[in-house]
TrEMBL record:
<dbReference type="GO" id="GO:0000287">
    <property type="term" value="F:magnesium ion binding"/>
</dbReference>
<feature type="binding site">
    <location>
        <begin position="316"/>
        <end position="318"/>
    </location>
    <ligand>
        <name>GTP</name>
    </ligand>
</feature>
<dbReference type="InterPro" id="IPR031167">
    <property type="entry name" value="G_OBG"/>
</dbReference>
<keyword id="KW-0378">Hydrolase</keyword>
<keyword id="KW-0460">Magnesium</keyword>
<dbReference type="GO" id="GO:0042254">
    <property type="term" value="P:ribosome biogenesis"/>
</dbReference>
<feature type="binding site">
    <location>
        <position position="173"/>
    </location>
    <ligand>
        <name>Mg(2+)</name>
    </ligand>
</feature>
<feature type="domain" description="Obg">
    <location>
        <begin position="2"/>
        <end position="159"/>
    </location>
</feature>
<dbReference type="Pfam" id="PF01018">
    <property type="entry name" value="GTP1_OBG"/>
</dbReference>
<dbReference type="InterPro" id="IPR027417">
    <property type="entry name" value="P-loop_NTPase"/>
</dbReference>
<feature type="region of interest" description="Disordered">
    <location>
        <begin position="62"/>
        <end position="87"/>
    </location>
</feature>
<dbReference type="InterPro" id="IPR014100">
    <property type="entry name" value="GTP-bd_Obg/CgtA"/>
</dbReference>
<protein>
    <recommendedName>
        <fullName>GTPase Obg</fullName>
        <ecNumber>3.6.5.-</ecNumber>
    </recommendedName>
</protein>
<dbReference type="Pfam" id="PF01926">
    <property type="entry name" value="MMR_HSR1"/>
</dbReference>
<feature type="domain" description="OCT">
    <location>
        <begin position="355"/>
        <end position="436"/>
    </location>
</feature>
<feature type="binding site">
    <location>
        <begin position="287"/>
        <end position="290"/>
    </location>
    <ligand>
        <name>GTP</name>
    </ligand>
</feature>
<keyword id="KW-0963">Cytoplasm</keyword>
């Protein structure tokens, strides 16, 4: 089971917004209490925040799916639902957030820096908030929006002042253990260190961190050995210290060759990752000089290294020889770097979706395959909020789209009555039949919860029924008078089915009159 994880794939889901409520105030002696439905609560965001106490991404390796809480539904008596709680994910300093395609979303450096990776859905409005001078008692409420969801990749790049680099078994772990209180694993075989180790070093009044980067070999930039897994941890270091093993007995190995191999791998990695590492100060630590043969090799290569403008230190992690001089040299570089760098403040980064095509427009319309696709944040959000089982809510959506200018734009683009108009995301889009003849406005509403434009009622009012009954009796009188004059009776008026003549009423008017 791993104890150190520096890259994970994370699936995050923000909380859904709570639904609004359609409610009417009911109280004794107050028959016209009015709407009092409350709004739904907003869903919680998912926030990634830098925590100095966190050093690994292992928690997200075991639990890669994280979700914030949903907003609560509203209630009557103007009670709004509770907002969902934000989910805060703590990550180490130096975490890079990438999308699924590998593009950098944010580089989180500095304690407290945070990123709102997905935003919670907005809560739906209750009917109290939807009431207006024309729509005094709405019989509907808006649904809450679903929370955003996405998949991101978290990649940790250790934030250290000094990076110790070198071949396996060069003594890097022993050096960081001698300089600090870090206690990495130390053994006499290659690749003992499998994870970066951080140690805090104090030299005079300067305190800085040192990272022990796992051993590099030739071809590391191409993935050999530990390869890319740990080369990225040197990107943020203010200076690099080459730890060279002067006591190695491997054939073909010597301090100058080791230095050239490591520098070549750093250069190749910089080209692949787009990072320039050539400007980082270098120090050379010739290690294990407590061994007689190693001291002779150090004396032999010292002049060649200094000819390359490299500052050379002869050290022994075992006997602590030369460590004080090396630590003060590292502190001097760190102090100069900090003095030149601007102050880093914790920032809050909020992701916003890119603006749709057509700047300063709330929507765009595209014709494709005989259908008209309406794209835009507002139309898509309004469709999500609409309860399509409620005719009045659908009519309210039609009013909003009309005020936005969708109908006028469709007519200008050549849309014909009956064409399909598609609004919403691809997965849950809604298809409408384009009908520009339908009137807009709340003044055409029927009873609560109904909209005559959506589901027109064929039921006649009592007044209309009385008018049809009077027309039926008037025809009977006119028919009798026409027969009395020897003329044909006028045509029968059109009546509703429940007022139409029954079979026993189809009688001869002359016989009825004679009787």
């Amino acid at each position: 089971m791993p104890t150190f994880v520096d890259h994970v794939t994370l699936h995050v889901q923000a909380g859904n917004g709570g639904h609004g409520v359609a409610s009417v105030h009911r109280e004794k002696f107050k028959p016209l209490g009015g709407p009092d439905g409350g709004n739904g609560g907003h869903g919680g965001d998912v926030v990634i925040r830098v925590d100095p106490d966190v050093t690994t991404l292992i928690d997200y390796h075991h639990e890669p799916h994280r979700r914030a809480t949903n907003g609560a539904q509203g209630a009557g008596s103007n009670r709004s639902g509770a907002n969902g709680e934000d989910l805060v994910l703590s990550v180490p300093d130096g975490t890079v957030v990438r999308d699924e395609d590998g593009e950098v979303i944010a580089d989180l450096v500095g304690a407290g820096t945070e990123l709102v990776i997905v935003a919670g859905g907005r809560g739906g409005l209750g009917n109290a908030a939807l009431a207006s001078s024309k729509r005094k008692a709405p019989g509907f409420a808006l649904k809450g929006e679903p929370g955003e969801q996405r998949t991101v990749r978290l990649e940790l790049k250790v934030v250290a002042d000094i990076g110790l680099i070198g071949f396996p078994s060069a003594g890097k772990s022993s050096l960081i253990a001698a300089l600090s209180r870090a206690r990495p694993k130390i053994a006499d075989y290659p690749f003992t260190t499998l994870v970066p180790n951080l140690g805090v070093v104090r030299a005079g009044s300067t305190t800085f961190t040192v990272a022990d980067v796992p051993g590099l070999i030739e071809g590391a930039s191409d993935g050999r050995g530990l390869g890319h897994d740990f080369l990225r941890h040197v990107e943020r270091c203010a200076a690099l210290v080459h730890v060279i093993d002067c006591a190695t007995v491997e054939p073909g190995r010597d301090p100058l060759t080791d230095l050239d191999v490591i520098e070549n791998e750093l250069a190749r990695y910089g080209e692949l990752a787009g990072v320039d590492l050539s400007d980082r100060p270098r120090l050379v630590a010739l290690n294990k000089v407590d061994v007689p043969d190693a001291q002779q090799i150090a004396d032999f290569v010292r002049a060649d290294l200094r000819a390359r403008d490299l500052e050379v230190f002869e050290i022994s992690a075992a006997s602590h020889a030369g460590l004080k001089e090396l630590s003060f040299a590292m502190a001097e570089i760190v102090q100069a770097r900090r003095a030149a760098a601007p102050g880093v403040e914790a920032t809050r980064i909020v992701l916003r979706p890119p603006a749709p095509q057509g700047v300063d427009r709330d929507f765009t319309i595209v014709e494709q395959g005989g259908q008209w696709f309406v794209h835009g944040d507002k139309p898509t959000r309004w469709v999500r909020q609409t309860d399509f089982s409620n005719d009045e809510a659908v009519g309210f959506l039609a009013d909003r789209l009309n005020r936005l200018g969708v109908e006028q734009e469709l007519l200008a683009r050549g849309a014909e009555p009956g064409d399909d108009v598609v609004i919403g995301d691809v997965d849950d889009a809604v298809v409408f039949d384009f009908d520009p003849t339908i009137a807009a406005g709340a003044e055409v509403l029927g009873r609560r919860g109904e909209d005559l434009r959506i589901d027109p009622s064929t039921r006649r009012t009592n007044k209309e029924r009385r008018e049809q009954l009077a027309a039926k009796r008037a025809w009977e009188i006119e028919a009798r008078e026409a027969r009395a004059r020897g003329e044909q009776p006028p045509p029968k008026p059109e009546l509703d089915e429940d007022l139409a003549w029954s079979a026993d009423e189809e009688y001869d008017l002359d016989e009825e009159q004679s009787s």
